[in-house]
């Protein structure tokens, strides 16, 4: 039974040595990693590699794809991450498992903007992230109870974040790039305050609750907190930062057409790939 899986309950590997979910082996992932949500975005960004025709692609049966090539001569991996903190957890742990030396990891996502004055298409760089989780034990009759919980903030790596911010600002007009506190949510509907009649989510006051507790709350998405939290607990191995393109403004309802999103993805990816390529990792060998 379990053919192909080695017995190692703490970190299961396939017989080939590949990790169980990403399917990556030693040498498959570079020290510099760009994590993106969807497959199309990764494919579009991988076309920016020095020689896209020689990109190494590892596709797993669990929906992860890892593209590895070089940008300005520096090895970089782009990983299709999917959605949510559970997927980001697989990506951070498995992509870095075989990597020797320090790792720089940046996420490029899409996001819902919370600040009414920020137009759709604004790119938000996370200086910190906090996580919103539903309180499943919430009891509406208990007036002291809150239906959602907000964690304390975790910081992005300051040098990686600053380099990312300056690269993005020099590629795009200045007012398009902002810094804020990312609010990562457990779910897309309930935990981002999308109220409806079909389920009792107790989320009518969710956005107000977040903004009362975090005055710099800038955007909702679903992965950044986990990336920054694991980097923070990686004993110094992983330096992480994140940015996201505003696809919708939750306060005004303004949305970004997909055509504009795809154009912004390419421009911002050039900034992100340059950031990854230039960031100093202090590794003994230059990689
Ligand atoms: C929800 O639609 C998804 O979009 C955002 C959220 O974080 C979530 O993953 O990011 P991506 O476009 O990177 O997936």
TrEMBL record:
Domain of life from the UniProt record: Eukaryota
MF GO annotations: uridine phosphorylase activity
Domain annotation Nucleoside phosphorylase: ranges: 33-252
Gene3D superfamilies (UniProt xref): Nucleoside phosphorylase domain
One GO cellular component term noted in the UniProt record for this chain: cytosol
GO biological process: uridine catabolic process
PANTHER family: URIDINE PHOSPHORYLASE
Designated name of the protein: Nucleoside phosphorylase domain-containing protein
């Amino acid at each position: 039974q379990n053919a192909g899986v080695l017995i190692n309950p703490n970190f299961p590997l396939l017989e080939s040595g590949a990790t169980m979910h990403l399917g990556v082996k030693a040498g498959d992932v570079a020290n510099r990693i760009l994590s993106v949500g969807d497959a199309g975005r990764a494919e579009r960004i991988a076309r920016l590699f020095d020689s896209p025709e020689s990109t190494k692609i590892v596709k797993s049966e669990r929906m992860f794809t890892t593209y590895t090539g070089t940008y300005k001569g520096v090895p970089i991996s782009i990983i299709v991450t999917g959605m949510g903190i559970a997927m980001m957890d697989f990506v951070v742990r498995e992509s870095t498992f075989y990597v020797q030396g320090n790792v720089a990891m940046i996420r490029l996502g899409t996001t819902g903007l919370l600040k009414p004055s920020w137009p759709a298409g604004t790119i938000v760089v996370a200086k910190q992230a906090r996580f919103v989780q539903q309180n499943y034990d919430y009891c509406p009759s208990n007036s002291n109870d809150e239906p959602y919980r907000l964690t304390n903030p975790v910081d992005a790596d300051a040098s990686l974040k600053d380099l990312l911010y300056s690269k993005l600002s020099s590629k795009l007009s200045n007012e398009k790039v902002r810094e804020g506190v990312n609010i990562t949510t457990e779910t897309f509907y309930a935990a981002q305050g999308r109220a409806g009649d079909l389920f009792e989510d107790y989320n009518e006051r969710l956005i107000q609750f977040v903004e009362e507790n975090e005055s710099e709350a800038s955007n909702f998405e679903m992965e950044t907190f986990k990336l920054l939290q694991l980097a923070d607990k990686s004993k110094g191995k992983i330096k992480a930062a994140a940015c996201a393109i505003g696809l919708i403004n939750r306060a005004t309802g303004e949305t970004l057409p997909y055509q504009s999103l795809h154009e912004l993805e390419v421009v911002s990816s050039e900034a992100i790939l340059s950031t990854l390529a230039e960031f100093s990792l202090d590794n003994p060998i230059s990689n």
